Amino acid sequence: MKILRNYLNKIKPNFEEGGKLSALRSVFDGMETFLFVPNDTAKCGVNIHDAIDSKRIMSFVVIALLPAMLVGMYNIGFQNYAAAGVEATWWQMFLYGLVNMLPKIIVSYGVGLGIEFIAAQIKKEEIHEGFLVSGLLIPMIVPVGCPLWIIAIATAFAVIFAKEVFGGTGMNIVNVALIARAFIFFAYPSVISGDTVWVATEQIFGLGANVPDGYTCATALQFAANGTEILGATGSALTTCDMLTGLMPGSIGETSVIAIAIGAVILLWSGVASWKVMFSVFVGGIAMSLLFQNTLPDNPVAQVPFWQHLILGGFCFGAVFMATDPVTAARTEVGKYFYGFGIGAMAILIRVLNPGYPEGMMLAILLMNVTAPFIDYCVVQANVNARARRLTKKN
Amino acid sequence: MAELFSKKNKEALTTPLLKNNPVTLQVLGICSALAVTSKLAPAVVMGLSVTIIVAMANVIISLIRNTIPNRIRIIIQLVVVAALVTMVSEVLKAFAYDISVQLSVYIGLIITNCILMGRLEAFAMQNGPWASFLDGIGSGVGYALILVIVAFFRELFGSGTLFDIPVIPQALYDMGYINNGLMLMAPMAFFLIACIIWVQRAKDKSLQEN
């Protein structure tokens, strides 16, 4: 570490005003503060600093995402070999998933960070670190068949219109990664829905297996929406065990409940995510699916058992990594319960009542993101009124 | 000719094009700018119709401006606009039926376009017919300009065509290019108009307020 620090100190003058590489000042600054906690102190007034700054918070979220990402990579290979009916070792499956996933991650980070660097340079600000998480989330919430150029356009759209125009990290109203997904969902529906994009079908560098043309496999929720038995890539029925371990078709990072649970533990243990939001998302989901199960006997999605609603699709992933985003969630502690409940309930509502959208988690979270300031306003006003009443009663 | 294009008249004609554009600066006529701009042809026809109607209405109101009783001036303006809109609508039905079907209610809704009432109230009621005519042409073309820019991008990226002629080569589609479906939806027109406003304000420092 000493050597690295000394090296950074040595090259630092190049990046300062008037130095050879001053055009890359923000890049250097971003790297330096990423590697070392900056020991600048506030120059005026009294400020209280938390021991952990936002770059460290982001790092925790990235660590929490890793299990889901690794299982997602393995699952890409698993689905491919299963669809082709070829035997393979777990190492081959993982390697195939890696070469499928890596370009997506590189494109997402490349485009997003590129825009952040340019924006920081123009505004003469430090680089915002928020994209560290969004850049990893975007490749994890798209199907494996999503083309790279579409990921690039969606990332650019999301970073510019959902984030930079609002003022950058911490100022965005809606979740940036979900805006990227929503963009793909509405602009290029054929690459993010249907039954041909969830399983990789081609060999890459001799890895993987070629799946015959015309192969189709829908996601579990699409099978549920059609009212048929939920099938896996091989055409046999999915077991509850598959749904928990995540060996089923779906967006890359969302399938494995166990890996997401590990991420949830990391987030809760480090205090980054709020347990209130996570908990109430699940309560909302359970309440809504029980309600529909008892009131809509003819709707096939409504008849999916409530525990299956929670472990299928993006419900867990959204609840753990998206809904808990501290920037876009409700800030008041009471508001978090309403916010989370709204997400869970809306997600099931969309799944059940809109046959066109088998998955409702993305739209539910975006909707509640927009509603969060209103929830906060109501909670604060309620508190103001309660205190005003208490005061007048005393007098 | 000198007084026909005096400085004031020139300003009436040119300021609505950029400096005081009805859509990007006054934020009027947004509704139709979202609704008719998914293709270029309807956008051009819409822009043309609005230009003609604003110009004609401005001239008519300007001619009778001194005889209109102040208390019922809005009603009179509406009658004039409604008559002109009905005429344009009938002409379109007769000579450009397909496009009039595509534009559907939006031709009729020109009556409610705020640009019209805005120009009549703000300009034609105080100025002579020639100046009012130029002002109407300026406002209409300023509105049409934005419509055409938005429609250009929406049709190019949404359908891969311009005036229904394919312009994106088939080779690109074979390589995996897909038309952007979001461009065909109204929300994308919001983003495009926002981008136009963004560019305009970035270029013209006098428009930036703090």
Explain the overall architecture.
- By secondary structure, chain A is an all-alpha fold.
- Chain A has two domains: about 20-35 and about 55-270, no CATH class; about 275-390, no CATH class.
- Chain A is about 60% helix and about 0% strand.
- Chain A is built from 15 helices and no strands.
- Chain A has helices spanning about 1-15, 25-35, 55-85, 90-125, 130-140, 150-165, 175-185, 220-225, 240-245, 255-270, 275-295, 305-310, 315-320, 335-355, 360-395.
- Chain A is globular and about 65 Å long.
- The model of chain A has no long low-confidence stretch (mean pLDDT about 85).
- With about 210 residues, chain B is mainly α.
- Chain B has a domain at about 30-150.
- Chain B contains ten helices and two strands.
- A two-stranded antiparallel sheet of chain B has the order 1-2.
- In chain B, a hairpin with a 2-residue loop joins strand 1 and strand 2.
- In chain B, helix 1 (about 5-15) packs parallel to helix 8 and helix 7 (about 115-125) runs antiparallel to helix 8 (about 130-160).
- The radius of gyration of chain B is 19 Å and the shape is globular.
- The chains are: A mainly alpha (about 400), B mainly alpha (about 210).
- The interface of A and B includes residues 147, 150, 186 and 188 of A.
List the keywords.
heterodimer; A: 395 residues; mainly alpha; 2 domains; 15 helices; 62% helix; globular; B: 210 residues; two-stranded antiparallel ribbon
